[in-house]
Design a protein that fits this description.
By secondary structure, the chain is of the alpha+beta class. The protein folds into four domains: 4-138, no CATH class; 151-328, no CATH class; 331-423, Immunoglobulin-like, CATH 2.60.40; 438-658, no CATH class. Helix content is 37%, strand content 26%. It has 17 helices and 24 strands. Strands 5, 6, 9, 10, 12, 13, 14, 18 and 22 form a nine-stranded mixed beta sheet that branches. A hairpin with a 2-residue loop joins β13 (311-329) and β14 (332-339). α8 packs across α9 (440-450), α8 crosses α13 and α12 (481-508) packs parallel to α16 (592-615). It is elongated and about 115 Å long.
Length: 658
């Protein structure tokens, strides 16, 4: 038994194929009608109740006539049928050879009229609505032919299974995919071209303007812009369990949808009439990106289904999340992403095309919203090589300013490759290393190894906050919530290291780009360190090695005591963050987020101030460490977010510093 949804798609495909056949038959029948034979259809009589032919009032000219006032004595549909009947009667009453020839021609005419009257979607507005006939006579642009081509809607699936367990119950692993295509096409011919020719006094040299009456409709019946072609592809994996006549399945996967929209010139000026005419197409042949707009999205999903006797008795989509959205048009690319370390709101995000880490006139920019999300509309000229992608040698994403939505701390700078779906401290390192000549895959492996990150997903796609807070099903395939929390902790600890590095540099030199210098230094350190030398963010000796490397790169010096104390402060703060994460996660992984918020503020903010005081020698190493101990030994009122409601939760964390 074919499912109802699949049956409907098969019927649509059959109607599409039949429509193609009907058009071919109609053309064949039309060719049988002699060129000198007219087809006359009586449109009936009309009563114009408010038409004053002799009026000199410009508001009462023929083209201003309200056709809603038109009254008819007989429907045009009836006259259309009468025309066919009249031709048939002429055919039945023939006697001599001449009349028989005429009868043959009339039969062809009758067959032609019958055929076009039966084609699904083919409409002659002046025949089906007499008001359109009056519009034609009064000079208004009027549809003569409209053909709503039956939609082509097809889908094919592929699926492969392999045994996991049996015989009872039978458990199978399943890998599958599908591809769908759907069209929504409507074409027509109106009097716009004829009116253009009329405006040129019907000069023979302007007769070509008649053909501008042909158009592709860009609107549906409600006047809404639609995609003329939609493609959808799905890849999924899961498990099927069956016992006798019952079965159940759980599957997760990725779904991509791409829509192709033909763009009406008026869409760019706010004067769209929903019709793409021949002249509009010809004028943009050399710049086809102005003629089409591609839009799409990529979602992940998790769904379940139960069947009894091969009939679905229950099904549910447990979750669906959007990974990315994009648009490619004459206005360029539209790219969506998030700025995160916790989410960063109010940051200026721009596509840095000259890699100087600052916004310059002409570079596309925007501001991240309260959830760290941002959209960038990227013009096509940024794509220097014209391959449809923004390459790593063409631009970088830079986020400057804003504030951390969990800690309230001001955000400095974050960087990412142009195709990143998230911008974090780790993508900042990734971008610098790729720009140094390494491949993205090699960089991902390097960062994960050097920082001991247990992550199978890519740095530029994995959102740990979503994994922790929303249990993203795709990320959950290989990453559980604990992993998401660990990566989030790594974001916080790496940012703490960068903030502390900036504080050291700020105390030793005047440079507004010290945070970017710290990012560059950490990336170089990871690249040149030995294969066995990992950076342990909670180990003072490991942190001191990096600090020493950074200072040497900048040709700066600290006393051994200052360097040791700075490294110990950073390592101790990161140890404290690890302990706080474990305490919060002891209740639930999601509960660890608010526990980390206030502690992060102290480690990334307050401790950075102390390190700068250490570098400027405002305080001695002995005194500064006592101050750090007091800062970390305080109790915290932690803010726990739940929608728009906020409540204080008291959490005590035992100090690490003795």
């Amino acid at each position: 038994m074919v499912p109802e949804e699949e049956k409907e798609k098969l019927e649509k495909s059959e109607r599409f194929i039949k429509a193609v056949g009907d058009i071919v038959d109609t053309i064949a029948l039309l060719s049988q009608i002699p060129a000198d034979q007219s087809i006359i259809i009586d449109l009936g009589s009309f009563s114009l109740t408010d038409f004053k032919a002799g009026s000199k009032d410009k508001n009462k000219t023929a083209d201003k006539l309200d056709t809603n006032s038109v009254e008819t004595t007989k429907t045009v549909a009836d006259h259309f049928k009468d025309a066919i009947n009249t031709v048939n009667k002429q055919t039945d009453t023939t006697t001599n050879s001449t009349e028989k020839t005429t009868a043959t021609n009339n039969k062809s005419t009758s067959s032609f009229l019958t055929k076009i009257n039966s084609i699904e979607g083919l409409n002659f507005p002046i025949l089906t609505n007499p008001k359109n006939a009056i519009n034609l006579l009064t000079g208004k642009t009027t549809d003569l032919i409209v053909y709503d081509i039956p939609d082509l809607d097809f889908k094919f699936d592929i699926e492969s299974s392999f045994p996991v367990y049996g015989p009872v119950p039978i458990i199978k692993g399943v890998l599958g995919g599908s591809f769908e295509a759907k069209t929504d096409l409507k074409i027509g011919f109106d009097t716009a071209g004829i009116n253009q020719w009329k405006n040129d006094d019907f000069q023979l040299s302007s007769i070509y303007k008649v053909f501008d009456g042909f158009y592709l409709s860009d609107w549906d019946e409600k006047g809404k812009d639609v995609n003329e072609l939609t493609l959808k592809a799905t890849i999924e994996a899961g498990l099927d369990v069956s016992v006798l006549v019952a079965s159940a399945s759980l599957r997760g996967g990725i779904e991509g949808i791409v829509g192709l929209d033909v763009v009406d010139v008026g869409e760019n000026t706010g004067k769209s009439d929903g019709k793409i005419r021949g002249s509009e197409i010809i004028s943009r042949i050399k710049t086809p990106w102005e003629l089409f707009k591609l839009n799409g999205k990529v979602d992940v999903f998790l769904k379940g289904e139960a069947k009894v006797l091969f009939k679905t008795v229950w099904e549910k989509e447990f979750a669906r999340f959007n990974l990315a959205k994009f648009t490619l048009s004459a206005d360029g690319f539209t790219f969506s992403s998030k700025l995160s370390q916790s989410y960063i709101a109010g940051a200026t995000i721009f596509l840095d095309t000259n890699f100087n880490n600052q916004w310059d006139e002409g570079e596309i920019k925007t501001v991240s919203n309260e959830y760290g999300k941002f959209d960038l509309d990227i013009p096509p000229e940024v794509d220097l090589n014209g391959d449809g992608e923004i390459g790593t040698d063409e631009a970088q994403l830079v986020g400057l300013g804003g504030f951390n939505t969990s800690s309230g701390l001001p955000s400095g700078a974050l960087i990412a490759l142009p195709d990143s779906q998230i911008v974090t401290p780790l993508t900042s390192l990734q971008a610098r290393l790729v720009q140094s000549g390494l491949t993205k895959d090699a960089v991902n492996t390097l960062i994960k190894d050097k920082l001991s990150l247990d992550l199978t997903a890519s740095l530029e796609t994995f959102d740990p906050l979503k994994s922790v807070g929303e249990n993203d099903p795709l990320q959950a395939v290989n990453q559980n919530n604990d992993d998401g929390l660990n990566i989030y902790l790594a974001h916080i600890q790496v940012q703490a290291l960068l903030n502390h590095s900036q504080a050291l540099l700020d105390g030793l030199q005047t440079n507004s780009n010290n945070l970017l210098t710290a990012i560059d230094g950490l990336a170089r350190f990871l690249q040149v360190s030995t294969d066995t030398e990992n950076l342990v963010l909670t180990n003072a000796e490991s942190v001191k090695t990096f600090f020493n490397f950074l200072l040497q790169q900048e040709q700066l010096t600290l006393t051994p005591e200052q360097l040791q104390t700075a490294a110990q402060i950073t390592a101790t703060g990161n140890q404290f963050l690890s302990q706080v994460k474990d305490i919060g996660a002891s209740k639930s992984v999601k509960d660890a987020l608010p526990v980390l918020a206030s502690v992060k503020r102290v480690v990334q903010g307050t401790l950075s101030d102390y390190i700068q005081q250490l570098a400027t020698a405002e305080q001695s190493p002995e005194n500064i460490f006592a101050t750090v101990k007091d800062a970390l030994n305080q109790n915290y009122y932690l803010v726990d977010a739940n929608g728009n409601a906020f409540g204080n939760r008291y959490v005590y964390v035992e100090a690490i510093i003795p």
